[in-house]
Design brief:
The protein is of the alpha+beta class. The chain contains seven helices and 18 strands.
Length: 356
């Protein structure tokens, strides 16, 4: 689903600012051969295109336009399909002409000539995904979805035929629609996972660089070292490759020994790496920067936070954020849970936790 948001703030329905407790979803279609979203949603945001007649549902008229649904599905100016949210989901819409206005989210699918199967399949799929999104957001099931004509039969909407004048032309019905929503909901519930706890990574190494040594510590020279003490003597190969060396003194008169401006320790006997036998050593002061401990282990524990933080931008939706940050819009529920959101309302500048 390509979900965008452009709330119709000049519409009288929006200005009425009445809220509902969402109990269902009602599917409508526009009843006019015009698949372009710009006919109903405006002004142009760069994706919609310009409505040259200025008759979209966000134009100001005295008293405001007396009709509004929560979303439209149709074509952007580049011909791709998108969903535009036009009212807050829990806002009372004026779409059913009956009691369903008080309980149902209503959205309109922009009709074309009703014969283009390619267009139909795209908007049908978009509508299924929108219903999956809303069901998960409000704890609904596929059984809570009806179309306008079904609403009329239930006595909660006016006498309209949508969408059953269109869906059957392409081998679909509201029963097949609900079945596809149900299948998608069940599939998502099996595969969706939520990360809520930090992950801890422990790394163990066998040697560590240190600036302090104790007597009887075994050490070896760094392979990259070129000096074995602060003088200009070169480290012999046998020192670098074949032996460990034993620290015999670390201080003199209680103070660290410095030679040539470098802190040093005295190395005495050496231990053959292959045989383990102790032999006479080099008995000289060696700069500690050239040494590493042997047989010591250090454990580094790194805690990865359970989430990163995202700042909401203008016209962001939870679906868009989940799609961009988590790879799938369907994972928006993870954001809802992690942030303890009561509904889908987010605002520009809001800080949201995004699961890692």
């Amino acid at each position: 689903m390509e979900l965008k948001k452009q709330i119709l703030t000049n519409n009288a329905c929006y200005k009425a600012n009445q809220k509902i407790k969402v109990k269902g979803i009602m599917v409508h279609s526009t009843g006019a051969n015009n698949p372009w979203l710009k006919r109903y949603v405006g002004p142009d945001d760069g994706y919609l295109g310009v409505n040259t007649y200025g008759n979209h549902w966000n134009t100001y008229t005295p008293g405001g336009r007396q009709i509004c649904c929560h979303a439209f599905i149709g074509k952007l100016k580049d011909g791709s399909i998108a969903t535009y949210q036009t009212l807050p989901w829990d806002h009372r819409g004026w779409h059913a002409g009956g009691a369903a206005n008080n309980t149902h989210i209503g959205f309109e699918i922009c009709e074309d000539g009703l014969t283009d199967k390619t267009y139909f399949n795209k908007v049908y799929k978009e509508a299924v995904e929108l219903c999956v999104y809303l069901c998960k957001l409000y704890g609904l099931t596929a059984d809570n979805i009806i179309c306008h004509s079904e609403g009329y039969k239930k006595g909660i909407a006016t006498n309209h035929g949508d969408v059953m004048h269109w869906f059957p032309k392409h081998g679909k019905s509201m029963d097949t629609f609900r079945a596809e929503v149900k299948k998608a909901l069940e599939g998502n519930s099996k595969t969706e996972t939520t990360t809520t706890k930090p992950t801890t990574t422990t790394t163990t190494t066998t040697t560590s660089k240190t600036t302090t040594f104790k007597e009887k510590d075994k050490v070896e020279f760094k392979a990259s070292a070129t000096k074995y003490n602060p003088s200009s003597s070169t480290i012999p190969d046998w020192v670098k490759e074949d032996y460990y060396h034993v620290v015999t003194q670390t201080k003199s008169n209680g103070k660290a020994v410095k030679k040539g401006g470098k802190t040093c320790v005295l190395l005495g006997e050496k231990v053959n790496k292959k045989t383990g036998k102790t032999e006479d050593g080099i008995n000289t002061w060696v700069a500690i920067e050239n040494l590493t401990l042997v047989g010591k282990t250090t454990t580094t524990t790194t805690t990865t936070p359970a989430y990163t933080t995202y700042t909401v931008k203008e016209n962001d939706t939870l679906w868009d954020i989940a799609k961009a940050k988590l790879g799938s819009g369907l994972r928006y529920t993870e954001i809802v849970k992690l942030n303890n959101l009561k509904n889908d309302t987010i605002y520009e500048g809001q800080k949201l936790k995004i699961p890692n």
